[in-house]
Design brief:
By secondary structure, this protein is mainly α. It has a single domain, classed as Glycosyltransferase. The strands form two sheets. The chain has a three-stranded antiparallel β-sheet with strand order 1-4-5. A hairpin with a 7-residue loop joins strand 4 and strand 5. Helix 1 packs antiparallel against helix 2, helix 2 runs parallel beside helix 12 and helix 6 packs antiparallel against helix 7. The longest helix is centred in the first third of the chain and has 18 residues. It binds 2-acetamido-2-deoxy-beta-D-glucopyranose (7 copies). The site of one 2-acetamido-2-deoxy-beta-D-glucopyranose has 5 residues, from helix 9.
């Protein structure tokens, strides 16, 4: 699918010390993505002796590992490279648990609805991109996503602010008094994706219910000169009448764009387009540089004070903008120039150690001296998405269009509902001594991915 506007894409940046990216070449995109992914995964400690699958070392929070593996599911989809599938399957299953709820006891103390939903985004992506299934005894990727949905639907809170979800799950946590976009928009997007994937009307109804709450809340600020603005959250103490606008975060926009794109694609109802275009306007006006079209996390990047979490946000904004281009095709011409320019900007920042570690300031090709998982996943998201323009990749599937990850509407609420997976459990430690075993497992995984593998055939 080579679309016309790729013709006027900027030519590859030829900065001496950066990842080279030829945006119209599948080989170049794969090579760049593979280099960036390798350095990101080198930080992963979940397969080390004494650690557990699904963990990153400090300072990374638990949710960020879920986000990282979401991008790795994407990585397999875009490039066809199965190198990290085993680690990804292992991490998602281990943290999801045999009931698929993503409420592991090591995390529940300070787990937020947004933390939990990011893992569900990873498993939902696995269902939509026909990722190899979890091991025997674990719910399907779809069922894990449904388990999270079911738990969060029970947490709907009509007692304050007319509904919505609180940020934190535990009443003793300070964030229990806060209702934020990451949690509420996250549930909205998850519901929309389950609606599209399963075709079950219950999820459409919940998408509507959550959207109506968001749209009616102080978090949603339409018709500003820049388009629609999205506040980060609001406190229940004032019955959510006062939006917290001190933090401006691009992922809040991205989460809603993703949700609106899925629900529009599924329902084909025009009513979803107006809020979608409003938020797209806000996103481009607020976060993308006017002339270069490169994304900037404006709340922190210009001041060099992005938090560890903040360094990941561009990755999601880009991810769901790309998704929007796929699922709402009339937005593609508007969106792609920003993605292409941002990918070039990102690659130009990947001139840290080994010429593959990426900084965060994509508006300059001088490495900014920072490295980390957030920088790496943001660059990965921007670079690998360009594969959509040079290869004919399928859109996220549904149960009607080739999805094989089984639906279970009662997942999580009735205990362990295993999938019919025939995939064996993957050995926890991948050490040199386990190489033979790992080789066999890789072969098994390869057999599962063969149908969806483009690595060998695309060029
Ligand atoms: C929680 O931590 C304990 C102790 O490190 C470990 O044995 C267990 O596997 C961890 N659970 C998960 C889901 O990582
Ligand atoms: C809180 O806000 C909700 C929704 O806007 C409204 O229905 C409710 O009456 C408000 N409660 C109070 C005590 O003001
Ligand atoms: C508002 O958002 C900022 C930036 O994220 C945060 O530091 C602050 O704690 C939030 N305020 C409240 C009342 O939650
Ligand atoms: C988005 O911006 C364009 C151009 O700036 C404007 O014409 C359009 O009305 C805006 N749409 C929405 C929904 O805000
Ligand atoms: C939904 O997405 C598919 C895949 O990109 C696309 O072909 C279809 O036109 C979209 N539906 C709508 C209503 O835009
Ligand atoms: C639809 O989803 C809901 C919520 O998960 C579930 O209770 C219901 O059984 C599902 N319906 C069908 C027909 O699968
Ligand atoms: C863990 O996985 C990463 C990424 O796949 C790899 O680079 C690293 O060598 C692995 N560590 C061990 C101890 O196997």
């Amino acid at each position: 699918m080579v679309l016309s506007w790729s013709l006027w894409a900027p030519l590859a940046i030829s900065a001496a010390n950066a990842i080279e990216l030829q945006i119209d070449s599948a080989d170049s995109i794969k090579q760049a993505a593979s280099t960036i992914a390798y350095d990101m995964m080198a930080t992963y400690t979940g397969n080390n002796t004494g650690d557990n699958p699904g963990n990153l070392p400090q300072p990374y929070y638990w949710w960020e590992t879920g986000a990282m593996f979401m991008h790795m599911v994407d990585y397999n989809y875009y490039t066809g490279d199965p190198s990290y599938n085993q680690a990804t399957i292992q991490a998602m299953s281990w943290q999801g648990g045999t009931n698929g709820e993503f409420m592991p006891t090591n995390q529940t103390k300070d787990e937020g609805n947004d933390d939990q939903v990011f893992w569900a985004f990873a498993t939902m992506t696995a269902a939509e991109f026909k990722f190899p299934p979890p091991p025997v005894g674990y719910p399907s990727w779809t069922a894990m996503s449904q388990a999270v949905f079911n738990l969060q639907a029970e947490r709907w809170d009509p007692g304050t602010c007319g509904g919505g979800l609180r940020w934190q799950i535990q009443p003793y946590a300070a964030g229990y008094a806060y209702k934020n976009i990451a949690s509420n928009g996250g549930f909205f997007q998850l519901a929309a994706r389950l609606a599209r994937y399963t075709g079950n009307q219950t999820y459409v109804d919940w998408s509507e219910k959550m959207w109506n709450w968001i749209e009616g809340s102080s978090l949603y600020i339409p018709n500003t000169p820049q388009g629609t603005r999205i506040a980060d959250g609001t406190g229940v103490g004032t019955n959510c009448t006062e939006p917290n606008t001190s933090g401006v975060f691009s992922y809040n926009y991205g989460i809603l764009i993703g949700g609106l794109a899925y629900i529009y694609n599924h329902t084909e109802e025009k009513k979803w387009l107006e809020p979608l275009y409003g938020i797209l306007n806000g996103t481009f006006n607020i976060f993308f540089h006017d002339s270069s079209k490169v994304i900037q996390e404006v709340g922190c990047e210009p001041y060099n004070d992005c938090s560890t979490d903040g360094l990941t946000f561009k990755s999601f904004t880009i991810r769901w903008l790309v998704l929007c281009a796929q699922l709402v095709p009339q937005t593609a011409d508007m969106i792609w120039p920003y993605i292409q320019a941002s990918a070039q900007g990102a690659a130009g920042q990947c001139s840290g150690p080994d010429n593959s570690n990426c900084g965060y300031h994509w508006l300059t090709t001088t490495w900014d001296g920072t490295t980390g998982v957030g920088q790496q996943m943001s660059a990965l998201a921007a670079v690998q998405a360009n594969m959509l323009l040079v290869n004919d990749l399928y859109a996220p599937v549904t149960l009607k269009t080739g999805g094989t990850s089984k639906s279970d509407g009662t997942a999580g609420t009735t205990g362990n509902v295993p999938s019919d997976s025939t995939s064996p459990w993957l050995t926890k430690k991948i050490t040199t001594g386990d190489k033979a075993g790992a080789g066999i497992l890789t072969a098994i995984i390869l057999a599962f991915t063969l149908g969806g593998t483009y690595w060998l055939v695309s060029n």
